[in-house]
Specification:
781 residues, alpha/beta, seven-stranded parallel sheet, six-stranded parallel sheet, 33 strands, globular, binds adenosine-5'-diphosphate, binds zinc ion
């Protein structure tokens, strides 16, 4: 519904609760307009929103904005219309007349248009005076932004349906060969069926323009019809799901047994063990019970590859939902779910699809559950899709299956605590072996001068070997760009971003320096901005540099790169994957985009150029993340019968994490990480709440952070860390301070959050701090 605020503003709102107590502090207004005949959100959604708002410490409005497709949040626009009875034009001032005149040509104007016409702001007084003179009327109109898509089809006009009239018609067209040709094309496309033909296709096939076809419509030969078509429609042939192998079948049975007792189960299956196949069996069984399925994937893994794979089993029953889809497409999925349409039996989607209006949910699959991108960072609500999915499962009494080859420490801990069930699958499908792992000591190689650029002689010979066998190679480097920093070799200064406290990244192909935090770009200066010597030199390296080196080392080989810079646009990512699949690319270099669920049969070698910068990342999850990334990227090798190879280059090959990666020792990694987290109090043993303060003025944010820090220490004692400046202390011209609160398990979480909320409220009531932006991030990453 729409509700008025003040004199002219209209907001859309949802009825959350009905009661008959008159508000005391303000005067209740009437509802302006009921927008929907039937509810567009479900009661379970409202419960879920309340949980999110309370757990993640954000407003219900934040959740509503994240959940509802933008098209449902109608905008209010004041429209100015002409009063046709008005005749005293002479009584109008110059500005009033301009508007009046514009209304002669245009039946209505928005306030925005009037601002343009008068070329100034504050036009409301002019509008008011026109109103007083009764020259105009104003109207508040609410636009429904979502418009269903219609597709044009051509069919034969009803008059020509008989054989006889058709012959007459064709004879009549002998002198219009072009039109006759279109007619023949039309019948060819129809192939004897009674269905209309796509307008676009007819034009293409008969090699003509729309005007010629339109002429036939005018002549009464054809009829133009518009058919509403959901944008996301597929017409692939349905195939039965695959039979499971013996180990897969065992795993499935175990999962089903667990689901009788527990809501959540972790499926810990090595890469290429066929987790997706197991999911399919669970999905089919859920559909048979007439229930809906939510299949959550990280955004980056939502490729045509996985979509096609599931469509082949479920066809039209799947709706895909992710941010690369348009607003309209998302509204369609929403409506399909609400109306329990056949098209929305399975939702395949990224993070935000946990917020959709499921009505009868039976199963949730969270694939790649360890992926940190399931956590929303900006804007609020800063929810974790996996944890929100578990809550959603609880609300629907639906089962939740978490799948991963490298479970997060948190999830594995929950499984160990028997909070979740646990099923293990240790063999790859078809008994393909896990790849053979090899660590290459590049410190040694440098010393012995066995490096060419960033490649060790060992990695180069492995690449040559793979290429000579006509096999493909994947190379992983976690930084994009040419080199992370450009530094002056005379004075050591590195060009900085003017808006953020971070060095700029060099992109060679356009010779630019770029900030990966705010998007700032500038040409690479010829001389050092500090000492003016022409000695700017690049340090470190990114994917772009690796690509260029490869092109020099292997001039006859097709090399491509996949990172944020090469995959913009809706299909950017898919195009590269498709060419790789088609073997139009021999070596693919990329960032962690490469690690997600891609299934290429012909990749026999995976190379990691440098494992060290991952390990050295200053974060308590850095080692866990390195393990996960290395194992996931290795999993891309040798998916067919031949055993794949993985070579990891490092300055520190004896690092315990790299050793654990090479022997796939997840339990050892888990135990080491848990020991550290016990020792230093980190999740899953405590909960983390991070408070981030931002302001343009450093002194202000510093004072504010100290105030906040002291108040928190009063309540939480030595569980408070900070305030500190993060490693990048300024982004987009705002200074940042951050405070971390550790809430031990056992201590009531809700009470602690209430206390944090109270401190935040008193903080915001201090006039000096009101302009300081406060971000609260629960279970932060
Ligand atoms: P994971 O998700 O565990 O990495 P996938 O489900 O992608 O593994 O399976 C890896 C490959 O093996 C895929 O190409 C898949 O089609 C194939 N596969 C796995 N299980 C089966 C099965 N039971 N029947 C046929 N093909 C299978
Ligand atoms: Zn910047």
């Amino acid at each position: 519904m729409a509700v008025p605020f003040g004199k002219s503003k209209i907001y859309t709102a949802i009825v959350f609760e009905k009661h008959s107590e008159e508000p005391k502090a303000y005067e209740a207004k009437e509802i302006y307009q009921i927008l929907d005949e039937l509810p567009i959100v479900t009661e379970i959604q409202l419960k879920q929103w309340q949980w999110i708002s309370s757990y993640y410490m954000c407003s219900l409005g934040d959740v509503l904005r994240a959940a509802l497709p933008k098209a449902f949040l109608l905008e209010s626009e004041t429209l100015v219309l002409k009063n046709d009875l008005f005749e005293q034009e002479a009584a109008l001032t110059d500005e009033e007349y301009l508007i009046w005149e514009a209304l002669e040509h245009q039946s209505k104007l928005k306030i925005q248009d009037i601002i343009k016409i008068l070329d100034r702001k504050g036009v409301l007084s002019v509008v008011n005076s026109l109103l007083a003179k009764e020259a105009i009327e104003v109207k508040e109109e609410i636009y429904e932004q979502y418009k269903p898509k219609y597709v044009k089809y051509i069919q034969l006009h009803a008059d020509h349906q008989t054989e006889e009239s058709l012959h007459l018609l064709l004879d009549g067209l002998t002198r219009a060969p072009k039109q006759r040709e279109i007619m023949l094309c039309f019948f060819q496309l129809k192939q004897g069926s009674n269905e209309p033909v796509l307008f676009k296709e007819l034009i293409k096939k008969s090699n003509t323009t729309s005007t010629v076809v339109q002429a036939l419509v005018k002549k009464g030969v054809f009829e133009l019809i518009q058919i509403r078509e959901d944008r996301v429609s597929f017409d692939t042939e349905i195939q039965p799901i695959h039979d499971l192998s013996v180990p897969q079948k065992e795993a499935l049975d175990q999962i089903k047994t667990i689901f009788k007792e527990k809501e959540v189960c972790l499926l810990h299956g090595v890469t290429s063990s066929g987790k997706t196949e197991i999911y399919s069996h669970l999905i089919s069984q859920t559909l048979e019970q007439g229930k809906q399925v939510l299949y959550l994937l990280p955004e980056i893994a939502l490729t045509t590859h996985i979509i096609n794979r599931l469509q082949q089993f479920y066809g039209d029953k799947i709706s895909v939902f992710h941010s690369r889809y348009s607003v309209d497409e998302r509204v369609e999925v929403w409506n399909n779910l609400l109306t329990r349409s056949d098209k929305a039996q399975i939702i395949l989607g990224a993070r935000s699809s946990v917020l959709l209006p499921f009505s009868n949910l039976g199963l949730i699959i969270v694939d790649e559950e360890h992926e940190t991108s399931f956590k929303q960072f900006e804007p609020s609500p800063r929810y974790h899709a996996r944890d929100t999915a578990i809550m959603l499962g609880f609300l629907h009494k639906a089962n939740v299956l978490l799948g991963s080859a490298t479970p997060s420490v948190e999830t594995f801990y929950n499984a160990k605590q028997s909070k979740y069930g646990y099923v293990k699958l240790e063999t790859r499908f078809g008994n393909v072996q896990l790849p053979e792992m090899e660590l290459v000591d590049i410190k040694e190689k440098h010393r012995k001068k066995r490096m060419k650029g960033h490649f060790s002689d060992r990695l180069l010979s492995l690449i040559e070997e793979a290429l000579s066998e006509k096999e493909q190679v994947i190379l992983f480097q976690n930084r994009r760009g040419y080199s992370p920093v450009v530094e002056c070799s005379t004075c050591g200064v590195a060009p900085q971003c003017p808006n953020c406290d971070v060095s700029l990244t060099f992109h060679k192909f356009n010779n630019e320096l770029k900030c990966h935090y705010c998007g700032h770009q500038q040409a690479l200066p010829k001389t050092c901005p500090a000492c003016e010597n022409p000695t700017l030199d690049s340090k470190g390296f990114g994917t772009e540099q690796i690509e260029l080196e490869l092109k020099e080392l292997f001039p006859d080989t097709k090399v491509a790169r996949m990172d944020l810079d090469t995959t913009r646009g809706k299909y950017g990512y898919q195009k590269i994957l498709q060419s790789f699949q088609d073997h139009d690319i021999d070596i693919l270099v990329g960032t962690q985009m490469l690690t997600k669920g891609l299934d290429f049969k012909n990749v026999s070698l995976v190379g990691v150029l440098n494992a060290d910068n991952l390990l050295n990342f200053p974060d308590f999850r850095a080692h866990e993340r390195t393990y996960q990334l290395m194992v996931q990227v290795s999993g891309r090798a040798g998916r067919d019968q031949k055993r794949g190879k993985v070579a990891i280059q490092s300055f520190n090959p004896y690092h315990q994490i790299l050793q654990q990666v090479t022997v796939h020792d997840y339990p050892a990694m888990y135990q080491d990480q848990m020991n550290e987290r016990h020792q230093f109090s980190y999740p899953p043993l405590v909960r983390l709440v991070r408070i981030v303060l931002k302001h343009k003025d450093f002194i202000k944010v510093d004072t504010a952070a100290n105030w906040m820090g002291k108040s928190l220490v009063n309540s939480f004692g030595d569980q408070v860390l900070g305030p500190t400046s993060p490693s990048i202390g300024r982004i987009r011209n705002k200074y940042i301070k951050s405070i971390l609160i550790k809430i031990p398990s056992g201590v009531a979480l809700k009470q602690s959050k209430d206390q944090i909320q109270r401190i935040k409220d008193s903080f915001l009531s201090i006039p000096d701090f009101r302009a300081v932006q406060v971000i609260v991030d629960v279970d932060c990453y």
